[in-house]
Structure formats: structure tokens, C-alpha cells
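JOB MANIFEST
job_type = single_chain_structure
chain_count = 1
residues = 612
[input]
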Amino acid sequence: MKCFNKTYLSKTLLAGLMVTGLFSCKEEFLDPKPLSIFSPENTLTSESGFRAALASCANHMRPEFYQDGAPIITENIFSEVAVEGTTDKFGPAVNMNILITPDANLNSGDFNRIGWYWDQGWVGIRLANTIISRLPGATFTQAAKDVVKGKAYFYRAYQYYRLVHQFGDIPTSFKEITEPKLDFQSVKKEAILARIKLDLDTAAQFVPWVQDKGDVNKGAVYHLLAKVCISMGLFDEAIAAASAVINNGAYRLVTSRYGSDLSDTKKNVIWDLHRPANKAVGANTEVLFLVTDRYGDQNAVVNGTTSMRQAVPFFSVNTILTPDGRVGMTPNFGVELDMCSLYGRGIGRCRGTGYSTRDIWDDTKDLRRDTASGNWMMMNMLVYNNPSIKGVSPWYGRRLQLFNTSGALMVSTGDTIRTWYDWPHYKLFIPDQIRTPFQGGNSDWYVFRLAETYLLRAEAYWFKGDVAAATADVNAVRTRARCSPYTSAQVDIGTILDERARELYYEEPRKTEITRTAFAFAKSGKTYKGKTYNFANFHTANFWYDRVMDKNNFYRQNVKNVRGDAYTISPYHALWPIPRPSILANPNGQINQNLGYAGSETNKPAADKVIE
């Protein structure tokens, strides 16, 4: 099993502990503290050594949102908000029924990053386990040890939370492993959730409320605890955890303008919240936890976010034509009408669906879809900028048109999946200090924000049956964006998930969160459009699948791209396949395959309790 084998133990663990770059908005917290001998025996004795190890846990959370083919794309395309937009080759995750198997390439920026989540989840768990196991032998105060333990519990719980909602029943390890182990057993997801809930309850006692924004604080702990409790059907406890954050004076929704672009009167608070320079500053009272990435810092991600490359349409391609049939666009930097510097040179890999780009926007006042301020971009806001047609075509400098006057499509390949859709410019636009044309440079990225805490509490209230309270929480987020508030009659689980999609696109791991809601449905017996769910047949009938099929027209209609590949997805994709090499590398134990995938026919009952 790749994540547990001897090579991993001897190299990956120690390499992880060598990472000393820390995360915060303060200079000194960003500076690395080199150590003389990089091994747990020498590092994990002093408080500074444990701080360095905790920093590696934080650092480990960052790559999900960065570089080409960022893993967060895979989370989005296994949901209702996006699909894989790559249309020029076979292999990207379009036809899930064919391509998502235990033996497939599950860790490629060009295909999908399921295997990345599997491998890196275990790396994160191992890093946290090493800290926890070595802590009793450390030589600093018990009070400081308790804080370290609470933070390590948070990091471990976060990784297990993600893995359980991505892969379901999984093997467990809650202590440091110092020798090869080939007898792992699958453990029921319910038992794992119960264990990490206890760990988060403990962490909440020790971790302080206010920390540097890239460090673990009590707000982040309670926020994650609320998610775990919803998944377990413990709605009162979820409400209490979320309320602890919301009612604490350290955190407030940002409702007034602030920060780097304050002098630009065309902008608004939504724009400000997502400026790279504004995410970790003190005026941002909304951030609970983020990962940091600063251009010029020695620990910066080499290629930055590439957020525009991933999620902005491929509008710079030569297949977009003017209404008089000429190549209308250029990717070149520095031309007279430089669209790529203004909006990014996208390739449309993470393609927003009709649901996320059109259907959910029910209020014209919504700042998150405001075109006047530049928060939201539509294709017809771009202009034809190919210098070679200047003085030749009357369309140079005029707005893009999808059809000409005769009704002909002005995309020569017919590929509007990759080249023509709206997008949230405010969220994706990251000035690029690395490349021209812009693809998305270095920037901090939100992991938890208070806006999501309100929506988590709204979900828990809805499951409990308190629709009035759920409505108030949705409206707290909604009215910040200047939307009219909902009435209680308008609010249900779909409304809450719609608000999440509006507020948290390309931030939240959407597949994980919809699966969390699916677990809550299976646990609670609540109905969705007349249907009830359970865990016994989760692989054939679950809320995740019904939600995706209800809202994602690509999968619902089996839309075909220009290659002829159809978009398909099935109920069993609510849980991803365990990579087969990991199962084969565990000959003395039993790691089950998720039902619906080849290999599940040899499954054995998963353990009812966590195996240390």
C-alpha cells in the first residue's frame, strides 16, 4: 500500500517533517526555522520542533488549490457545479462510468486527482500521528503540549473527514507507525467519524480562539466539528459548534469595504474579500483558516494558483470567430486589447455548469454575479482582439457574439463546452507575477470562512426541522451580497446548497460536502423530493447522485463533447474507488473496495471500531 509501505515510512514521513515553512499573516510566522538533524528523534523534543512539525501539517493542506490540474477541480466535477471541460483528448474525467475504476490513472492533472487525495490524505494523517505519539516525551510545559495536541488532532481529523467522505470505509491509523505494516483493515465510516468527533471535542478545549490566520484556532476546530456532527446526524451538536464560532466576537462577516482596492469605487466588499492581499489581514474578520502562498517567499508554490488557467473559458483560442468569419481572438500578451491580462488565459478545464453559472442566480442585485463592478464575466463582455483583423473586419474591438445574423455558431469547432461560459471573475482573478499571459499567480486561499459556518448551521437547523432558523442563517450570507432575504417558505436543503454554490465556488470541496449531506440523509430518514435513503444500498441510491442528476445537465442529459465522449456518472461514484495498488500492497489484511467497482465482490465486513 503506497501510503503505508517501508519506503514511505523512511522517506515521505521524514521529508514531511523537514518542511518548516509556516503559515500566517505575520512575517515571523512565515520565516522557516531550519533544524540541524531532520528526524523525529531530534526534532520532536522542543516546542519549536513541534511547531515546525505542525507547520508541515499546514503546508500539506495547501496543494489542493494550486498548480496545473489542481485537485480541487476533481472535487468540483464530481458535483453539480462543474464538469471536466477538456475536449481535445481521451482520458479526462468525462465519462465517469468508463474512466473511474480502481485500476485507472487516478492521479493525473490531465485526468483526475482521486489518487492524489488518497495518497496525500494518509501523508497528512501520518504527520499528525507522529506529532501526537512523540508529544509525551517532549520537554516543554503541559499547557503548551495541550495546544500542540489540539492542533495535531485538528489536522488529523481534517484528513479523516475528507477521506471518509471521498472513500467511505477506510483503514485507520491513530498512532505513529514505525515499521512496515501489511495487515490494515477497513473500518466503518461511522466509527471513524465518532472517533474524530471526540478528538475535535478535545481540541476545542485546548486550541485558542485567536491565532495567526494560517494557524489552527478554535473557530476552525468548531467549524470542522459542525461538519462531522452533521454527517453523523447529530444536529443539535452541529448547531452548538457552529454557534460557538458565530457568537464569538473574534469572527464576523465582512460587510464593509477594506484593503488593497479600497480606492476603486467601482468595486465592492465581495471583490475585496477575494483579493490576494486582503485574505489574511486583520480587517478580514471572516476567515477561520486559510493556506498562504506569497510571491517572493521561499516557500511559495512555484506555479501559484493557476486558477484562471483552470476555470476560465478557453476564449483565446483561434476557433472563436467574428460574425464575418475571421479568427477573432489571440492569446498574445501585450496586444492593444489584451484580454488575457485582464481576465486570464484560461483553458476551460473546470467548466461551470448551467446550474452554477445561470440557474442559481435568482436575484439581479447579487454582488457575486454583478457585471457592472466586474465581479462576474460573461463571454459577450469580451471583445475581439486579434490584431490581424484590425482595419480588416468591422468587428475588431466589438463584443463577442455566439451566433452571426444568419444563426451560424461562431465557434468553428462547435466546442462551446470549453470555450463559452460565464465565470466568477472576482474569485478566480489572481494577478500573475510568474507568467504572461496571466494564468493565476501566488495567493492565499480560504479553507474555512464564517460564511460557510452560517450555511452549515442552516443545514443542521433544516435537518432538525427549524426552517425559520435555517432561513435566518442563509439570509445572513445572502443579504451581505445585497440579495433580498428569503422567506421560510422558500428555504429547503436545495436552497441552502444553492447558497453554498453561490458563495463557495472553487473554495469548498463540493463533492465532499454533498456526500456529507448524503450521509446525513441516510442517517436521519429525511426525505428529498419524496425519497428516503439508507446506507444499505448507498451505492445504488443516495442523495449525492440525485442532487447531481437533478442539477447537472451534462450528466443528466449525457451531453457529448466534440470528440463524442458522453458525460456520465452513477450512484456509486458518491464514493471514489480505492486505488487497486493500495489494496494489493496489503496482503495480510483486508482493505475493501467500494461497492459498484471491480474488486468489491471479495469484500469482508468492515470493523465496527477504530483500529489504532
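[summary]
Strands lie at 82-84, 170-171, 186-187, 287-291, 350-352, 376-377, 423-424, 445-449.
The radius of gyration is 24 Å.
exit_status = 0
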